[in-house]
Write a structure and sequence with these properties.
With 283 residues, the chain is an alpha/beta fold. Helices cover 22% and strands 26% of the residues. A 7-stranded mixed beta sheet has the order 6-5-4-3-2-1-14. It has a 7-stranded mixed beta sheet with strand order 7-8-9-10-11-12-13. Helix 6 (222-231) packs parallel to helix 7. It binds zinc ion.
């Protein structure tokens, strides 16, 4: 499997000279299974550049097919959707999975941000590509692009956010953006979801000090990310979804702190990476 990071920032895009190294786009990660196909994890503003790159291949000719997994529908996870150009190419096919009470509710959420008051062009129904939308049953395994996928809800805001585990053969990737654990760490069924993953992409919005200041926002600190990685004994932790006000130097410090915490708390074997826009990881 190959992971591509197109947007690693939380809450709102943060472009500018202070964020050029880690990037300013909001959450979007691509996962290409070794057996072919494409899974897109969230559609923050990073989805725009992913879409542009896809148009060079089959998606540019209307022969592309991909699946999109949405953790939740806060702006920083869906704002790139109307700007994801392969959706406008007739012939392309997209399967969207997300955590609403029903498929029509999820469709309504995506349609809502494309209402004429917010968006000048098409509506969801006439973008061009074929789109089907499916609400996920939590905990149950389902097949996406030849991979086995399971989801669990983490506490986040008023509606929660899904974490996804994607397995292809012996390899596994977990995507856990926006995780505001209550009670010190992930719930037992969530630790189970993360268990032994080759890569855990984890919310690491804050330093522990800033998390205390902004506790009501429902995000993890780097300390929470480290705790989850150690509890689930993952092989590699990828810090993700940095606060919009953190400059590159702040994110460097966040990563150094994560490394130190891993070493101090029994996670010496766990590799740590700070997600960087434009980078790839092969699993
Ligand atoms: Zn959120």
């Amino acid at each position: 499997m190959q992971l591509g990071f197109w947007g690693v920032r939380g809450s709102i895009p943060a472009p500018g000279p202070a964020t050029v190294r880690y990037g300013g786009n909001t959450a979007c990660v691509s996962l290409r299974p070794a057996g072919g196909g494409l899974i897109v994890l969230d559609c923050g503003t990073g989805a725009r550049n992913l879409g542009i790159s896809l148009m060079e291949g089959a998606f540019g000719k209307g022969g592309g097919e991909a699946s999109i997994l949405l953790s939740h529908a806060h702006w920083d996870h869906i704002q790139g959707f109307p700007f994801f150009v392969p959706l406008y190419q007739p012939g392309n096919k997209f399967h969207i999975f997300g955590g609403a009470k029903s498929s029509s509710m999820l469709e309504g959420i995506l349609e809502g941000q494309m209402a004429p008051q917010y968006f000048p062009v098409q509506t969801l129904k006439n973008m061009g590509a074929t789109i089907d939308i499916v609400a996920i049953a939590e905990g149950e395994a389902f097949k996406v692009e030849g991979c086995q996928v399971r989801a669990r809800t983490n506490p986040h805001g008023r509606a929660g956010a899904l974490a996804f585990r994607i397995e292809e053969g012996a390899h596994s990737v977990v995507y856990a953006s926006d995780a505001g654990y209550t009670g010190g760490g992930p719930a037992p069924e969530v630790v189970e979801l993360y268990r032994g993953a080759d890569v855990l992409i984890h919310d690491s919005t804050y330093t522990p000090e800033d998390k205390k200041r902004y506790a009501d926002r429902g995000y993890s600190s780097v300390e929470d990310a480290v705790g989850a990685a150690i509890a689930a004994q993952v092989k590699r932790l990828v810090l993700f979804h940095y606060d919009q006000d953190y400059a590159d130097g702040d994110v460097d410090a966040l990563c150094a702190r994560g490394r130190r915490l891993l070493d101090e708390r029994g996670g010496k074997e766990i590799e740590l990476t700070g997600a960087t826009e434009g980078s790839t990881i092969t699993v």
